[in-house]
Protein backbone atom coordinates (compact mmCIF):
# COMPACT_ATOMS: atom_id res chain seq x y z
CA UNK A 1 0.00 0.00 0.00
CA UNK A 2 1.27 3.46 -0.90
CA UNK A 3 2.28 5.67 2.02
CA UNK A 4 0.18 8.75 1.30
CA UNK A 5 2.21 10.76 3.82
CA UNK A 6 5.04 10.72 1.31
CA UNK A 7 3.04 12.95 -1.02
CA UNK A 8 3.28 16.71 -0.95
CA UNK A 9 0.01 18.15 -2.24
CA UNK A 10 -0.37 21.93 -2.36
CA UNK A 11 -3.08 23.50 -0.24
CA UNK A 12 -4.84 24.79 -3.34
CA UNK A 13 -4.97 21.37 -4.97
CA UNK A 14 -5.94 19.66 -1.72
CA UNK A 15 -8.82 22.10 -1.17
CA UNK A 16 -10.02 21.74 -4.77
CA UNK A 17 -10.05 17.95 -4.55
CA UNK A 18 -11.88 18.03 -1.20
CA UNK A 19 -14.53 20.33 -2.70
CA UNK A 20 -14.92 18.23 -5.85
CA UNK A 21 -13.62 21.01 -8.07
CA UNK A 22 -11.84 20.52 -11.40
CA UNK A 23 -8.10 19.83 -11.22
CA UNK A 24 -5.70 19.14 -14.12
CA UNK A 25 -2.37 17.37 -13.73
CA UNK A 26 0.57 18.66 -15.78
CA UNK A 27 3.84 16.79 -16.31
CA UNK A 28 7.22 18.36 -15.60
CA UNK A 29 9.74 16.75 -17.96
CA UNK A 30 8.70 19.36 -20.51
CA UNK A 31 10.12 21.93 -18.07
CA UNK A 32 13.48 20.34 -17.33
CA UNK A 33 14.14 18.19 -20.41
CA UNK A 34 11.61 18.94 -23.14
CA UNK A 35 11.99 22.64 -23.98
CA UNK A 36 14.96 25.02 -24.19
CA UNK A 37 15.45 27.92 -21.80
CA UNK A 38 13.77 30.36 -21.33
CA UNK A 39 10.76 28.87 -23.15
CA UNK A 40 10.60 26.00 -20.65
CA UNK A 41 9.69 28.14 -17.64
CA UNK A 42 7.55 30.52 -19.69
CA UNK A 43 5.58 27.59 -21.07
CA UNK A 44 5.15 25.96 -17.66
CA UNK A 45 3.74 29.20 -16.30
CA UNK A 46 1.52 29.68 -19.34
CA UNK A 47 0.09 26.15 -19.11
CA UNK A 48 -0.95 26.75 -15.52
CA UNK A 49 -2.57 30.04 -16.56
CA UNK A 50 -4.44 28.33 -19.41
CA UNK A 51 -5.82 25.71 -17.02
CA UNK A 52 -7.02 28.45 -14.66
CA UNK A 53 -8.65 30.32 -17.54
CA UNK A 54 -10.50 27.10 -18.34
CA UNK A 55 -11.98 26.98 -14.85
CA UNK A 56 -9.73 24.33 -13.30
CA UNK A 57 -6.87 24.24 -10.81
CA UNK A 58 -3.45 23.37 -12.31
CA UNK A 59 -1.40 20.70 -10.56
CA UNK A 60 2.08 20.40 -12.01
CA UNK A 61 3.57 17.11 -10.81
CA UNK A 62 7.21 16.51 -9.91
CA UNK A 63 9.49 14.99 -7.27
CA UNK A 64 11.07 17.53 -4.93
CA UNK A 65 13.68 16.43 -2.44
CA UNK A 66 12.59 12.85 -3.01
CA UNK A 67 8.95 13.60 -2.30
CA UNK A 68 6.23 13.15 -4.97
CA UNK A 69 4.67 16.60 -5.29
CA UNK A 70 1.34 17.67 -6.77
CA UNK A 71 0.90 21.40 -7.33
CA UNK A 72 4.04 23.53 -7.46
CA UNK A 73 4.62 27.17 -6.55
CA UNK A 74 6.57 29.68 -8.65
CA UNK A 75 9.89 28.96 -6.94
CA UNK A 76 9.50 25.21 -7.44
CA UNK A 77 8.72 25.65 -11.14
CA UNK A 78 11.85 27.80 -11.50
CA UNK A 79 13.87 25.15 -9.62
CA UNK A 80 12.87 22.52 -12.17
CA UNK A 81 13.45 24.89 -15.08
CA UNK A 82 17.04 25.49 -13.96
CA UNK A 83 17.57 21.78 -14.59
CA UNK A 84 20.52 21.38 -12.25
CA UNK A 85 20.57 17.86 -10.84
CA UNK A 86 16.99 17.19 -11.91
CA UNK A 87 16.44 13.50 -12.67
CA UNK A 88 14.02 12.44 -15.41
CA UNK A 89 11.57 10.34 -13.41
CA UNK A 90 9.46 7.56 -14.86
CA UNK A 91 7.72 4.91 -12.72
CA UNK A 92 10.92 2.88 -12.28
CA UNK A 93 12.86 5.93 -11.07
CA UNK A 94 10.50 6.87 -8.24
CA UNK A 95 12.12 4.67 -5.55
CA UNK A 96 15.58 5.92 -6.56
CA UNK A 97 14.55 9.57 -6.32
CA UNK A 98 12.82 8.90 -3.00
CA UNK A 99 15.74 7.01 -1.43
CA UNK A 100 18.27 9.63 -2.53
CA UNK A 101 16.16 12.69 -1.82
CA UNK A 102 16.51 13.91 -5.40
CA UNK A 103 14.60 16.42 -7.47
CA UNK A 104 12.87 14.85 -10.43
CA UNK A 105 10.79 15.91 -13.42
CA UNK A 106 8.08 13.36 -14.08
CA UNK A 107 7.42 11.77 -17.46
CA UNK A 108 3.94 10.81 -18.61
CA UNK A 109 4.30 7.48 -16.75
CA UNK A 110 5.65 9.09 -13.59
CA UNK A 111 2.99 11.79 -13.64
CA UNK A 112 0.21 9.26 -14.15
CA UNK A 113 1.33 7.20 -11.17
CA UNK A 114 1.60 10.17 -8.80
CA UNK A 115 -1.47 12.05 -10.01
CA UNK A 116 -3.77 9.04 -9.85
CA UNK A 117 -2.74 8.28 -6.28
CA UNK A 118 -3.38 11.88 -5.32
CA UNK A 119 -6.94 11.56 -6.62
CA UNK A 120 -6.67 13.48 -9.90
CA UNK A 121 -8.71 12.38 -12.90
CA UNK A 122 -7.50 14.50 -15.83
CA UNK A 123 -3.96 14.98 -17.14
CA UNK A 124 -2.69 17.18 -20.00
CA UNK A 125 0.58 16.60 -21.84
CA UNK A 126 2.09 17.19 -25.26
CA UNK A 127 2.63 13.73 -26.71
CA UNK A 128 2.74 10.30 -25.12
CA UNK A 129 5.68 7.94 -25.49
CA UNK A 130 5.31 4.80 -27.56
CA UNK A 131 7.11 2.15 -29.55
CA UNK A 132 10.44 3.39 -30.88
CA UNK A 133 11.56 2.94 -34.45
CA UNK A 134 14.16 0.26 -35.18
CA UNK A 135 14.67 -3.47 -34.74
CA UNK A 136 15.10 -3.59 -30.97
CA UNK A 137 11.71 -3.77 -29.17
CA UNK A 138 11.91 -0.46 -27.29
CA UNK A 139 8.59 0.42 -25.67
CA UNK A 140 8.12 3.54 -23.56
CA UNK A 141 7.03 3.02 -19.94
CA UNK A 142 4.22 5.46 -20.76
CA UNK A 143 2.28 2.75 -22.58
CA UNK A 144 1.92 0.14 -19.81
CA UNK A 145 1.14 2.94 -17.36
CA UNK A 146 -1.67 4.09 -19.64
CA UNK A 147 -2.99 0.53 -19.70
CA UNK A 148 -3.30 0.36 -15.90
CA UNK A 149 -4.26 3.89 -14.82
CA UNK A 150 -7.89 5.09 -15.21
CA UNK A 151 -7.03 8.71 -16.03
CA UNK A 152 -8.27 10.91 -18.86
CA UNK A 153 -5.11 11.90 -20.73
CA UNK A 154 -5.23 14.77 -23.23
CA UNK A 155 -2.39 14.75 -25.77
CA UNK A 156 -1.66 15.24 -29.46
CA UNK A 157 -1.00 11.57 -30.07
CA UNK A 158 2.39 9.93 -29.70
CA UNK A 159 5.53 11.88 -30.48
CA UNK A 160 6.17 11.82 -34.21
CA UNK A 161 9.71 10.43 -33.82
CA UNK A 162 8.17 7.10 -32.78
CA UNK A 163 6.78 4.16 -34.74
CA UNK A 164 3.20 5.40 -34.81
CA UNK A 165 1.51 2.33 -36.36
CA UNK A 166 3.20 0.06 -33.80
CA UNK A 167 2.23 2.43 -30.99
CA UNK A 168 -1.38 2.53 -32.16
CA UNK A 169 -1.44 -1.26 -32.32
CA UNK A 170 0.01 -1.52 -28.79
CA UNK A 171 -2.75 0.71 -27.42
CA UNK A 172 -5.42 -1.36 -29.14
CA UNK A 173 -3.97 -4.67 -27.94
CA UNK A 174 -3.84 -3.49 -24.34
CA UNK A 175 -7.33 -2.04 -24.26
CA UNK A 176 -6.48 1.67 -24.18
CA UNK A 177 -9.23 3.58 -26.02
CA UNK A 178 -8.12 6.42 -28.30
CA UNK A 179 -10.54 9.31 -28.67
CA UNK A 180 -10.17 11.72 -31.58
CA UNK A 181 -11.17 15.16 -30.34
CA UNK A 182 -12.81 16.86 -33.30
CA UNK A 183 -11.11 14.36 -35.61
CA UNK A 184 -11.48 10.76 -36.80
CA UNK A 185 -7.86 9.73 -36.63
CA UNK A 186 -5.04 9.94 -34.12
CA UNK A 187 -2.94 13.06 -34.80
CA UNK A 188 0.82 12.72 -35.18
CA UNK A 189 2.04 15.39 -32.76
CA UNK A 190 3.48 18.04 -35.12
CA UNK A 191 1.02 17.13 -37.88
CA UNK A 192 -2.75 16.79 -37.71
CA UNK A 193 -3.05 13.49 -39.58
CA UNK A 194 -1.46 10.08 -39.20
CA UNK A 195 -3.74 7.81 -41.21
CA UNK A 196 -4.34 5.82 -38.01
CA UNK A 197 -8.00 5.73 -36.92
CA UNK A 198 -9.25 6.77 -33.51
CA UNK A 199 -11.61 4.38 -31.73
CA UNK A 200 -14.27 7.04 -31.32
CA UNK A 201 -14.73 10.72 -32.10
CA UNK A 202 -15.80 13.32 -29.53
CA UNK A 203 -16.67 16.92 -30.36
CA UNK A 204 -17.15 18.36 -26.88
CA UNK A 205 -15.72 18.12 -23.39
CA UNK A 206 -19.08 16.79 -22.22
CA UNK A 207 -18.81 13.87 -24.65
CA UNK A 208 -15.34 13.03 -23.35
CA UNK A 209 -16.59 13.22 -19.77
CA UNK A 210 -19.41 10.77 -20.59
CA UNK A 211 -16.87 8.32 -22.02
CA UNK A 212 -14.73 8.61 -18.88
CA UNK A 213 -17.75 8.01 -16.66
CA UNK A 214 -18.72 4.93 -18.69
CA UNK A 215 -15.18 3.57 -18.34
CA UNK A 216 -15.36 4.09 -14.58
CA UNK A 217 -18.77 2.43 -14.28
CA UNK A 218 -17.37 -0.64 -16.00
CA UNK A 219 -14.42 -0.70 -13.63
CA UNK A 220 -11.91 -0.69 -16.48
CA UNK A 221 -8.39 0.34 -15.50
CA UNK A 222 -7.00 1.80 -18.72
CA UNK A 223 -6.64 5.50 -19.38
CA UNK A 224 -8.85 7.28 -21.88
CA UNK A 225 -6.40 8.82 -24.37
CA UNK A 226 -7.96 11.95 -25.86
CA UNK A 227 -6.00 13.09 -28.90
CA UNK A 228 -6.30 16.71 -30.02
CA UNK A 229 -4.58 17.86 -33.24
CA UNK A 230 -2.00 20.65 -33.14
CA UNK A 231 -3.73 23.99 -33.96
CA UNK A 232 -3.86 24.47 -37.74
CA UNK A 233 -1.64 27.54 -37.91
CA UNK A 234 1.20 25.66 -36.20
CA UNK A 235 1.15 22.36 -38.09
CA UNK A 236 4.58 21.44 -39.48
CA UNK A 237 4.80 20.48 -43.14
CA UNK A 238 5.13 16.69 -43.25
CA UNK A 239 7.98 16.73 -45.78
CA UNK A 240 9.95 19.20 -43.65
CA UNK A 241 9.33 17.12 -40.54
CA UNK A 242 10.35 13.82 -42.13
CA UNK A 243 13.52 15.34 -43.55
CA UNK A 244 14.45 16.80 -40.17
CA UNK A 245 13.69 13.50 -38.44
CA UNK A 246 15.72 11.44 -40.90
CA UNK A 247 18.72 13.69 -40.32
CA UNK A 248 18.22 13.61 -36.55
CA UNK A 249 18.15 9.80 -36.53
CA UNK A 250 21.44 9.65 -38.44
CA UNK A 251 23.11 12.12 -36.08
CA UNK A 252 21.79 10.24 -33.05
CA UNK A 253 23.21 6.98 -34.38
CA UNK A 254 26.59 8.59 -35.07
CA UNK A 255 26.74 9.98 -31.52
CA UNK A 256 25.47 6.81 -29.88
CA UNK A 257 22.39 8.49 -28.41
CA UNK A 258 19.84 5.89 -27.31
CA UNK A 259 17.38 4.89 -24.61
CA UNK A 260 15.66 7.59 -22.61
CA UNK A 261 17.91 10.30 -24.10
CA UNK A 262 16.90 9.55 -27.70
CA UNK A 263 13.50 11.25 -27.89
CA UNK A 264 14.58 14.60 -26.35
CA UNK A 265 17.67 14.57 -28.59
CA UNK A 266 15.59 13.98 -31.71
CA UNK A 267 13.08 16.68 -30.79
CA UNK A 268 15.83 19.22 -30.10
CA UNK A 269 17.60 18.46 -33.39
CA UNK A 270 14.34 18.69 -35.32
CA UNK A 271 13.61 22.07 -33.79
CA UNK A 272 16.99 23.35 -34.93
CA UNK A 273 16.68 21.77 -38.38
CA UNK A 274 13.15 23.15 -38.93
CA UNK A 275 14.09 26.68 -37.95
CA UNK A 276 12.08 26.43 -34.76
CA UNK A 277 8.86 25.30 -36.46
CA UNK A 278 8.60 22.11 -34.39
CA UNK A 279 9.25 24.04 -31.17
CA UNK A 280 6.46 26.51 -31.98
CA UNK A 281 4.14 23.61 -32.76
CA UNK A 282 5.08 21.89 -29.51
CA UNK A 283 4.24 24.95 -27.41
CA UNK A 284 0.98 25.56 -29.30
CA UNK A 285 -0.26 22.00 -28.83
CA UNK A 286 0.71 22.01 -25.16
CA UNK A 287 -1.46 25.08 -24.58
CA UNK A 288 -4.32 23.66 -26.63
CA UNK A 289 -4.24 20.38 -24.71
CA UNK A 290 -4.14 22.14 -21.34
CA UNK A 291 -7.18 24.20 -22.32
CA UNK A 292 -9.12 21.13 -23.44
CA UNK A 293 -8.13 19.21 -20.30
CA UNK A 294 -9.48 22.04 -18.15
CA UNK A 295 -12.83 21.92 -19.94
CA UNK A 296 -13.02 18.13 -19.53
CA UNK A 297 -12.13 18.38 -15.84
CA UNK A 298 -14.89 20.96 -15.35
CA UNK A 299 -17.37 18.67 -17.12
CA UNK A 300 -16.36 15.74 -14.91
CA UNK A 301 -16.59 17.86 -11.75
CA UNK A 302 -20.16 18.75 -12.65
CA UNK A 303 -21.39 15.15 -12.50
Question: For the terminal residues, how far apart are their CA atoms?
Answer: 29 Å
Rounded to an integer in angstroms, the radius of gyration calculated over CA atoms is: 18 Å
- Estimated structural class: alpha/beta
Principal-axes geometry comes out as: globular
Total number of strands: 11
Order of secondary-structure elements: EHEHHEEHEHEHEHEHEEHEHHH
User: Helix fraction?
Assistant: 40-55%
Low-confidence stretches: none
**Average predicted confidence as pLDDT:** 92
Please report the number of helical segments: 12
General description of the model:
This protein has 12 helices and 11 strands. By secondary structure, the protein is an alpha/beta fold. Strand 7, helix 7 (142-148) and strand 8 (152-155) form a beta-alpha-beta unit. The protein is globular and about 50 Å long. The two termini are 29 Å apart. The mean pLDDT is 92.
